[in-house]
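input
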Amino acid sequence: MPTIYMVRHGRAAAGFGEHADPGLDEVGRQQAERAADTLVGAIGAPVPVYSSPLARALETAAPLAARWGADVTIESRVAEIPSPTDDLRQRAQWLAGAMAGRWMDLPDEVLGWRRDIIECVHGFETDVVVFCHFIVLNVVVGAANGAEALITFRPANGSVTRIGTDDSRLSVIELGVDADSRVN
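output
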């Protein structure tokens, strides 16, 4: 059974309603270094590294890739939740409402995005590391636990969640550190 090490990106320099694609701030860069240390210690030998195409996830992946001398493969299916608007302020308001609800209450575009994430994680045939986002982690953990709520836990920036896969289901091996953190 492959283990999928899913890492929430480090703290971003701006929030979801402030910038469309912020990089990491200084704290986020430190979190990325700690995540790399944790992964090297937990996994040992290099495994494939995947990342959301967004700057904060790519910048979080960089220290691990450097330590392992590995390339980072872009996996667009683990990018941020699609928003019905590009207006940053409206986008943040929409997300706050969505996070308080259930998956079945969201539009088809978002449900398709959710299915794509689950399919992506099921598709890994070996151990991998995936750098992604708060809601992506909630998709996977929620699917593993059969949760209807959009938010099932609050992974800290730079935390590592371990997911197991087999032919028919996802399982949570270990949740990443839970924290009261802003979504960014």
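quick obs: The beta strands are 3-8, 49-51, 72-74, 128-132, 160-165, 170-174.
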